[in-house]
Amino acid sequence: MSGIKIGDIVARKSYGCDVFFKVMDIKERNGERILTLKGISYRIEADAPESDLEVQPEMKVREYRDRCWREAEKTAADRMYEMRYYRYYMPRSRGWRKKAHYRDTPNDKAEKIKKPGKVLHLDGDKDYLEHCIAEYKKLGIDVAGEYVPEKDQPARVYSLLEKYRPDILVLTGHDGLLKGKDNYNNISSYRTSKYFVEAVKEARRFNPDMDGLVIFAGACQSMYNEIIKAGANFASAPFRDLIHALDPVRVCQKIAFASIDTVLDAEDVINNTITGKTGIGGIQTRGKYREGFPAEPGS
Questions:
Q1: Which of 9, 155, 159, 239 has the most other CB atoms within 10 Å of its CB?
Q2: Residue 2 lies inside a defined structural domain of this protein
Q3: Which whole-number Å values give the CA distances from 62 to 23, 132, 174, 243, in the listed order?
């Protein structure tokens, strides 16, 4: 196993080689090489002894990537449907009634201004940031993306919010429970959760209104309760599960295309994610989609 080097794709034998990682760093500890790993499709970071790792052949890596990204694409038709339809709640004396509106007919296309919510996405992983930006653009969402390592997000988020003035903020990257730590209620048991918590607090210092600035924060196995308490609308991971690289995009999609007249149920947003409720949770949140009239001819 002495041939493992930075950049290799590996899997942990003790976990049945279920998740593939890229080797990011190698250190000596008590006479053994310990490798720092980051998931290639899931937002998890881990350390592992070299003896527990198995380098994965290129063919297996391709198959693994294809399988993971197919999960993100398997509901593409549903995502397109969501871009064209939205739900809002109308008050009635006997409660709330849902009503669906079609908002892309030939007659209104040339007449209405259509403005989904704008996203600022801060990511501790450059590769994942590129994938997410491509996905936002497919969905027609105005997005600004910045590569910011998790530990630097608390210091940089305020100035980036001033620069971009988004409707929705994403704070993500990699996280994970530290080996040997089994106290889920202690933030020191997590790799980067404390940075997400601090960054959310800084963002709330910029805008304390949870409808004015919608925040998603966290990565794999993050300390969900503390991130929500800090002021996030949505966070990971309520069951300390792994989350897919595109889960933050799926959260943003629902919010960006829901009318400002809509208060989205958290469950409605979570059902649009790849991981679901074991990885993503949140609270009721107002949508960010606006329509105007009239649109400039030819626009």
A1: 9
A2: no
A3: 17, 19, 21, 20
What are the Cα distances from residue 127, in Å, to 12, 41, 120, 124? 22, 10, 17, 9
Which residue type does 244 have?
A: H
- State the pTM of this model: 0.81
Name the amino acid, one letter, at 224.
Answer: Y
Overall domain count for the chain: 2
3-state secondary structure of 233: coil
How far, in Å, CA of 189 to CA of 47, rounded?
A: 13
pLDDT digits (tens, 9 = 90+) for 232-259: 999 999 999 999 999 999 999 999 999 9
Cα gap 245→268, rounded to integer Å: 20
Q: How far apart are CA 71 and CA 67, in angstroms?
A: 7
| CA 242 to chain CA centroid, nearest Å | 11
Q: Are residues 234 and 217 in the same domain?
A: yes
Sheet strands (E) in 137-238: 143-147, 168-172, 214-217, 234-235
Containing domain of residue 127, as a range?
75-292
Do 233 and 89 lie in one domain? The reply is yes
Residue 286 in any domain: the answer is: yes
CATH of residue 238's domain is 3.40.50.280
130/268 same-domain check? yes
Cα 203 from Cα 230, distance rounded (Å): 10
In a domain, 4, yes or no: no
> What is the phi-psi region of residue 277: left when phi exceeds 0, alpha when psi lies from -120 to 50, beta otherwise?
alpha
Tens of pLDDT along 175-220?
Answer: 999 988 878 899 999 999 999 999 999 999 999 999 999 999 999 9
For the record, the structure tokens of 211 come out as 């409808």
Q: In the structure encoding, which two tokens stand for residue 230, read together?
A: 């800090």
Question: What letter would DSSP give residue 20?
Answer: E
Residue 268 is assigned to a structural domain of this protein: yes
